[in-house]
Amino acid sequence: MFGQVRQWEKRHVTERIVEELREELRLEQERGAEPSAGVMDSRSVRTADAVRSDTCGYGAGMKINGRKRFIVTDTLGLLVTVCVMSVSWQDRGGAKTTLLDTYPFSPIRHVFAGQGLRGPAGRLGR
């Protein structure tokens, strides 16, 4: 089974399935097939003790060892992008990285985000 999943990942099957389902659901909701706006949020999560320490970090604010995930959805809540990084990343830096992963591969050009992901001028990733 693991070998099959690895083959799917190499061929980007999972991404294509998500894209197809998102298009179908958006059309069902009488929206355009491709989203033009999205919503971004982050969440810090604890990792199990068995997780390699070089793939996670220590978050001083929440006092946990773990990872941080940044997720961009369209305005219907359908998945567009997921970035996972060490919990030691600052929200603004992670938001910038996530946007750089989102823009080249999706039509989303407007992203709504919480205050913690914004910089001093209200811009993301600054």
Secondary structure layout:
Blueprint: H1 2-10, H2 13-28, E1 37-46, E2 57-59, E3 64-74, E4 79-86, H3 91-102, E5 110-113
Parallel strand pairs: 1-5
Antiparallel strand pairs: 1-3, 2-3, 3-4
Transmembrane segments: 70-89
Protein name: Transposase
Domain Transposase IS4-like: 34-113
Characterise the protein shown here.
It contains three helices and five strands; from the N terminus they run H-H-E-E-E-E-H-E. By secondary structure, it is an alpha+beta fold. It folds into two domains: 32 residues; 93 residues, no CATH class. Strands 1, 2, 3, 4 and 5 form a five-stranded mixed beta sheet that branches. Strand 3 and strand 4 form a beta hairpin. The longest helix is centred in the N-terminal third of the chain and has 16 residues. The chain is flat, with a radius of gyration of 16 Å. 18% of the residues are buried.
What's the short story on this structure?
The chain contains three helices and five strands; from the N terminus they run ααββββαβ.
Which whole number gives the mean pLDDT? Answer: 83
Beta content: 25-35%
Number of domains: 2
What characteristic shape results from the CA principal axes? flat
Distance between the termini: 42 Å
**pLDDT < 50 runs, ≥5 residues:** none
Topology order in helix (H) and strand (E) letters: HHEEEEHE
Rg over CA atoms, rounded to whole Å, is 16 Å
- Tell me about the largest β-sheet: 5 strands, mixed
> How many beta-strand elements?
5
Q: Please give the count of helices.
A: 3
Structural class: alpha+beta
